[in-house]
């Protein structure tokens, strides 16, 4: 993907998650090698990795990473009700693409990288996200971004949802 789509998000409009998924899928295609493994961050990133695994015709299951055990706010949040880490492949020497729905402060990415390295030493790790909303607190940058949104206030979150039919959509919620 050469240049991400840049979106300014008005209060009454949401990005089209399905259109962004298509951009992400098309951007991932040329990055794949025989040693590439897809891993999604629970839950939205896991939905993306699972669907990409199927849509790109990759055998096996995508991995899931949980940030719960390595979060810097673990004492306040405790164990989240999200999925546990599942990596149905050998991490050592793999070229891993980690998927997340929305990149914001970078803290979740830091936590899942620590979790991933608990399982082994990959040859490379790349990050692909549907939306980068800026506001970084850590030096984290995605290698592949479907859209950038710069107009969402800090007290709001952009949450990816998956319907019973598997279709993706975004909602805006109050931040915790």
Query: Mean pLDDT score, rounded?
Result: 88
The helix-strand sequence is EHEHEHEHEEEE
Describe the sheet with the most strands.
6 strands, parallel
Overall 3D form: globular
Secondary-structure class: alpha/beta
Q: Helix content range of the residues, please? A: 10-25%
The count of DSSP E runs of length 2 or more, i.e. the number of strands, is: 8
Low-pLDDT runs of 5+ residues are none
Q: Widest sheet: strand order?
A: 1-6-5-4-2-3
- Number of H- or I-type helical stretches: 4
Fraction in beta strands? 25-35%
| Terminal-residue CA separation | 33 Å
As a whole number of angstroms, the C-alpha radius of gyration is 15 Å
Assembly status: single chain
Structure characterization notes:
With 176 residues, the chain is α/β, with parallel strands linked by helices. The chain contains four helices and eight strands; from the N terminus they run βαβαβαβαββββ. It has a six-stranded parallel beta sheet with strand order 1-6-5-4-2-3. Strands 7-8 form a two-stranded antiparallel ribbon.
């Amino acid at each position: 993907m050469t240049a991400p789509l840049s979106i300014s998000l008005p209060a009454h409009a949401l990005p089209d998650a399905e259109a962004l998924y298509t951009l992400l899928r098309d951007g991932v295609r040329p990055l794949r090698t025989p040693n590439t493994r897809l891993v999604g961050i629970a839950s939205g990133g896991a939905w993306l990795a699972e669907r990409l695994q199927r849509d790109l015709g990759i055998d096996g299951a995508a991995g899931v990473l949980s940030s719960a055990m390595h979060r810097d706010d673990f004492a306040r949040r405790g164990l989240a009700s999200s999925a546990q880490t599942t990596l149905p492949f050998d991490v050592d020497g793999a070229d891993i693409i980690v998927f997340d729905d929305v990149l914001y402060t970078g803290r979740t990415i830091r936590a899942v990288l620590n979790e991933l390295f608990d399982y082994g030493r990959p040859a490379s790790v790349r990050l692909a996200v549907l939306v980068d909303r800026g506001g970084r607190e850590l030096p984290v940058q995605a290698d592949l971004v479907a859209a950038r949104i710069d107009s969402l206030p800090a007290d709001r979150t952009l949450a990816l949802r998956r319907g019973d039919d598997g279709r993706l959509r975004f909602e805006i919620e109050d931040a915790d």
